[in-house]
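step 4 of 6: structure.
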Amino acid sequence: MRNNAPEGAAISIRALHVIRGGNEVLPHIDLDVPRGQIVGLLGPSGGGKTTLMRAIVGAQIVAGGSVEVLGHPAGSAVLRSRIGYVTQAPSIYPDLTARENLAYFARTVGEGADAVATTLHHIGLADAADRPVSTLSGGQESRVSLGAALVGDPELLVLDEPTVGLDPALRRDLWGLFHELRDAGKTLLVSSHVMDEASRCDRLVFIRDGAILADDTFESILADTGTDNADAAFLALTDRRAA
Amino acid sequence: MNLALTWNTAKRVLTQLRRDPRTLAMLIVLPTGLTWLLQYIFSESPVPPTGPIFNTIGPRIMGLFPLILMFIITSITMLRERQSGTLERLMVGPTGKADVILGYALAFGLVATVQAIAMTAWSVWPLGLEIPTGLWRLGLVMVLDALVGTALGLLASAVARTEFQAVQMMPMVIIPQLLLAGLFVNRSDMPVALEYVSDVLPVSYSIDAVNDILAGNGDGIWVPVAILVAFIAGSLVLGAMTLRRRTD
């Protein structure tokens, strides 16, 4: 097993192999995610995005290979307060208010009411903070779930489809927040099946059927495929692989 | 485990209960109501020389209410936690498996204490229960019954795949214990094979403890109480072991 992670990689994956329910979901993947960037993980659902993210946060049983996160094997105890993870479905308590949800997850990483108030403001929920999550809209609910990951001020954020179902204004605001976090030195790995979010990322990883089709900047991918949008580039790469 | 993280989870579970007045009412009002019903059905029966029937039947049956209620509530709540992704989020973070399990046990233990105080007080006044030893012993056994229900419910949540299945675990896990606990036939009068089975079931020791209380043997409860405490501790450890940081 080689382990030659580039200096400063936030995530370094070598020959990651995952089998779920007898199916090979990730067949020996290599991937490096540089620190301090927003890396978009794009591809159709069922392509292995969520499995890859779960392997990075240490929640996925893996069949082989290595995953190093911030210099430690994925799932190490030292990483637990340094990674923020947002699952695709909001994983929060619907009977608690937004503030109570954030306060609960904040205390798991030793943060208090100040961090909660700041985070509520960041996710634009300061006004709805004291309503039970079950009375919030789907978009507000997914922002509470995001807030529960942000509240501990983690170095690495792993966000599984954080903008799905949000209106364009909210998506713009959230991407603004992601850029702020990136500018503050955080690393973000953001998955999406919406190709038009490609231009908002510093780097893109195209993934389909567990295979990485491309791992580069948006500009380089467009130049390489001779296309002018992410959808066309993705199709070109799919066809190239099939050929 | 970490005390602050355990209390964090206990506090969160209690806040959730507070937000759900129906469940909270069910936890306190339902067992007291059932105790009243139990007293009422015997109220016109002829009084045997040993005293009112409620005095001997009441304490034996009352402990089953918290056992069953806590089993159902814990198994469903914990199953939701496993399925909604909140447990996965917690397991990715610094919270330990023991913090989650003990947090639940602590929260439900506090509720069980309130429940036991309400039921004991209610059974004495206005229902007129008289027992030969201190009432606190009966209250203690009821709190332990509730914790047995909590611990078994946590385990059941690991086996059940859906809430529908979790509810079905109740008759499977609880009813055989009721039949074998010595409520209907003294454990020593049962076929030997069944007597051995009843020896390893916690509810048997809860009934043993109540029998000691009713026999006026207050100090006799400490052996069954110690066995119940050991069973609860063992089940909680087992429950914590069913939580996984990594899943498929």
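step 5 of 6: annotate
 - The radius of gyration of chain B is 19 Å.
 - The interface with chain A takes residues 4-5, 8-9, 12, 15-16, 19-20, 84-86, 88-95, 245-248 of chain B (CB under 8 Å).
step 6 of 6: archive
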